[in-house]
Amino acid sequence: MKVILAQPRGFCAGVVRAIDIVEKALEKYQAPIYVRHEIVHNRHVVDSLRGKGAIFVEELSEVPDGAHTVFSAHGVAKSVVQAAAARRLPVLDATCPLVSKVHAQAKRYVRQGRSLILIGHAGHPEVEGTIGQIDAPVRLISTEAEVAEIDAPLDAPLAYVTQTTLSVDDTKGVIEALKARFSDIVGPDTSDICYATQHRQTAVREMCALADVILVVGARNSSNSNRLREIGVELGLPSYLIADASALDPKWLEGAESVGLTAGASAPEELINEVIEALRALGPVEVVPMNGVEENIEFRLPAELRA
Predict the structure, then answer these.
(1) For a Cys-Cys bond, which of 64, 91, 129, 230 suits 75, CB 3.0-4.6 Å?
(2) Is 126 among the residues known to form the active site?
(3) What is the per-residue pLDDT for 95?
(4) What CA–CA distance (Å, rounded) separates 194 from 197?
């Protein structure tokens, strides 16, 4: 069986930075370090950090006074930042810089007097954090059909921003519908879209032309991992999202000569390697890495952790 490895796949720079922040905080301040929400959406990453002394909580009220606290890569609402400041908690912000960039763009549009539209998925931590950063009403939409439901004059000054785990392809139809309906609407340039989301989706589309089955390693609550699987389905291939090698079902591979293998932006490379070993246990395997974008972006750590 030929195993085609997507390039790029797995960890993005924002995820690497977030994990580094927790690990270096544990080294510098010693356990326990409290993390609000899963640092990234992957159980293996969370369990590994928990084993080193990180304690994951959903609310700041669960953090003891004086405890070092990390905000997850998804970002948080202003109310969370203010609550931490009121308690004088020592905070390390692991918000992905690309998410922070969306926050800054959104605030700038609101200062310009524009009503804000956020393209994203309700309930996602990043979406909740972004809405909570804006001191104005935010209209959340996710489909083209919802554009017609927006109650605003056709010449109203509007602006849109997008959830970072949505690619240019994911948002293209919604943005076109917005621009077709409203005459005074602005949004970020496509170059501002999260590079990692776009690169991973492009790689999967190319991989689908070479594979019979698609396997995506990632968590069920990972938006970008789910989207990678959906792309395979849209292109007509049997496509499966698996948390790790233990979830692999040999029946999926019956009659397949080639398997496309990728991972969401919060899935470590070791999980990919374990899946390859699980495939080897079923028979001879030839691993063929795809040509693709080589990502060399790095995001700086907070100043207090750089020494």
Answers:
(1) 129
(2) yes
(3) 97
(4) 6
**Domain extent at residue 123:** 98-191
Please identify which of the residues 38, 62, 126, 286 carries the catalytic annotation.
126
Q: Is residue 298 part of a domain?
A: no
Kindly state whether residues 104 and 181 are assigned to the same domain: yes
Whether 91 and 144 map to the same domain: the answer is no
CA distance 154 to 37: 39
Q: Residue 86 is part of a domain; what is its CATH number?
A: 3.40.50.11270
Model pTM? 0.94
Domain identity same for 89 and 133: no
**Closest alpha carbon to 38 in 216, 222, 226, 194:** 222
Does 168 fall in a domain? yes
Q: Report whether 70 contacts 36 (CB < 8 A).
A: yes
Joined together, the tokens standing for residue 159 give 């602006």
Q: Please classify residue 230 by burial: count the beta carbons closer than 10 Å to its beta carbon, then call 0-12 exposed, 13-18 middle and 19+ buried.
A: middle
At 168, is the pLDDT very low, low, confident or very high (cuts 50, 70, 90)?
Answer: confident
Domain assignment of residue 150, yes or no: yes
- Greater pLDDT, 78 or 190: 78
